[in-house]
Write a structure and sequence with these properties.
single chain, alpha/beta, TIM Barrel, eight-stranded parallel barrel, 11 helices, about 40% helix, binds phosphoenolpyruvate
Length: about 270
């Protein structure tokens, strides 16, 4: 088994204007400057990408995006392509987040508007294809809802999302991709998955990669945990045998808290 470098990514979601993102990044970057053994990614909103890119030029922190569309250009109002992200200097992109899949844990969103977010495994697959074509590393999110966990179908749901999301790719294309196990019931709820259980699912994902692709890529891909990670629980999660880091939502908005999380990954 290879020694994988831990990866910690912050998903700022629809928070922080470009000015606020710059201030957050400055504080965060100073606080993590001594942690060179962890790969760090920040995923600001599209509008904050140019400003964040400028600030990251002299820093060992990668730039990520939160979503992408699967065509390079055309009449797709409001969408942003992988070609545009690559041109803006983006290295990583989240795909299939439960929020873009419309699988909200706590449903505050009226059912009538949920269709707006309805990303499927098929569109996830198309997006990954376009990102790989443009040299951007996908961070594929998978995870079960609370109802699925209670029905005992968690493993089957995760395996199906991995199989469909990665269908048609060659192992050699996916070496630098990451997968985030994000139980929907843990995202933004304050309820974290037990570290041993999160590690079990990450191990299951690794086994799926080995059987779908090959042992080498399964050994190389970073498998992250996401869902209410905080500085008080991150070390426990990140030191589980099958967890290679984290995808951090709410806690990544506080630069000191996010820095403590990153520091705990080394
Ligand atoms: C996320 O949105 O990917 C996430 C993990 O959110 P939070 O850390 O707030 O649960």
């Amino acid at each position: 088994m290879s020694e994988r470098t831990k990866l910690v990514a912050g998903n700022w979601k629809m928070n922080l204007t470009a000015t606020q993102a710059a201030a957050t990044l400055e504080t965060f970057a100073k606080a993590v400057s001594s942690r060179s053994d962890v790969d760090i990614v920040v995923c600001p909103s599209y509008l904050a990408i140019p400003k964040v890119r400028e600030l990251l030029r002299s820093r060992p922190i990668h730039l990520g995006a939160q979503d992408v569309f699967w065509e390079d250009s055309g009449a797709f109002t409001g969408k942003v392509s992988a070609a545009m992200l690559a041109d803006a200097g983006v290295d990583y992109c989240i795909v299939g987040h439960s929020e873009t899949r419309g699988r909200f844990g706590k449903v505050e969103t009226p059912a009538s508007t949920l269709g707006y977010f309805a990303e499927s495994d098929e569109t996830v697959n198309l997006k990954i294809g376009r990102l790989l074509y443009h040299g951007i590393n996908p961070i594929l999110c998978v995870g079960e809802t609370l109802a699925e966990r209670e029905q005992g179908v968690t493993d089957a749901v995760i395996e199906a999302q991995i199989r469909a999301g990665l269908a048609g790719f060659d192992a050699s294309e996916l070496y630098f991709s990451a997968i985030a196990y994000e139980p929907v019931w843990a995202i933004g709820t304050g309820q974290t998955c037990e570290p041993a259980e999160a590690s079990r699912i990450c191990g299951l994902i690794r086994n799926s990669l080995a059987s779908l692709l090959d042992e080498d890529v399964a050994d190389q891909v970073r498998i992250l945990y996401g869902g209410s990670v905080k500085a008080t629980n991150s070390a426990d999660l990140f030191h589980q045998p099958d967890i290679d880091g984290g995808l951090i939502g709410g806690a990544s908005l506080d630069p000191q808290e996010f820095a403590r999380i990153v520091m705990s990954a080394g």
